[in-house]
Amino acid sequence: MSRPDPYTDEPRGWDRPERPVALPWPEQELEAGQWSRRPPAGPELYAEPRTRPYADPHLADPYDERDRTVRPDDRDRFDDRDRRDHFDDRDRFDDRDRYDDRDAPPRFDDRDVPPRFDDDAGFPTAQLAPIGAEILPDDDPITEPEPPVGRRPKGRRRASVDRPATQQVGTGRAGRNLPAAIGVGLALGALIVVPLAVYPPAFLPVIAAAVAIGIWEMARAVRRSGAHPPLVPLLAGGVLTVGLAWFAGPDALSLGLLVTVLGTMIWRLGDGPSGFQRDLTAATLIAVYVPFLAGFAALLAAAPDDGRLRILATLIAVVLSDTGGYAAGVSFGRHPMAPSISPKKSWEGFAGSVTAAALGSALLLWLMFDLAPWWGAVFGVAVSCAAVLGDLAESMIKRDLGIKDMSNLLPGHGGLMDRLDSILFAVPTAYLLLVIFVPVAG
User: Fold this and answer.
1) Are 416 and 210 in contact (CB under 8 A)?
2) What are the residue boundaries of the structural domains of the chain, listed by start?
């Protein structure tokens, strides 16, 4: 005996009793008017495609044309007139009614209180609020932020009527810390005067150290333009140039410059051809600007009998020029001398530089070398003009590189090259004039 059918209670196979099966077509005796598209009450084997064999016969057929009025067509279901009755944009989505803030009181002032947001501010959740916004509950009124308790961290604070802005101490119209600048200037002066007064050959290491620091600052500054001059041959060649000038005179100074440039060129060959011309040009500029011009200071100091006086007269004339120009520029400066290069330099300051250097040099050279005062004044004017030109030349270099100071080595002054700029142009001028006015003994 076979197992019963799981879908019916009747057995399967040959044990199933025979019963008449409904034909899929109507009886021949049915009339044409009795045709119906309703599904038969009993099970059917072949149903019409548009009929549902298991549909409830007591419900209306959704596909029967006679019951078409039960379910409206697309034109009836999506009629714009009915849609306006249920989805009227003017009633439910009127921006003027929903977002009208003319009657709403102001919640905060951007100038006084940082913006804080709650549910009424247009942000339904905290995730939609901007980063850093303070989320308040509905019943928490907006209040002023309380000042932090404890020591205020380092940094700028907001100035107000009760708490004015902090003023920088010791800065003047020149834009630098005047007490620090005076202290560093006195220390540099002592570093120059003491070796010259005690043991003049000890001044040579001072010049060599200044040249090495100046080369380092220049090489570091020109890297901003993409040039990479080799530092090692420049340092070695600069110290060699100063030493040759001290011991062998002007011809050895030119030889030292030639050796420095050639050594830099050979050293740079090891880095390949990329940027060779650019790096060699920057190295040549540094070699001429720093060690070659500083070698004239070695020539002045190495002069027999009165070398210390020559270098002192030159340095004092430069200091007088800088001091007179600073005082006159701060007090009377109105007309810019070179606004595109150095906006703080004025023609009044230049007049003060020339006057102070001329008067001081006239007195110094008369006392030191028994030279006529007018020759001393000429010496002072020439040295002052050279010092101003040297200052402008370095300002142009810094302006082209986009930097303010060569470094931060000296407080109140910037880098060492910011102090050597005027001296480097002044010492060759002083050397030539003193050779003419005061011939070298021996």
Assistant:
1) yes
2) 200-301, 303-442
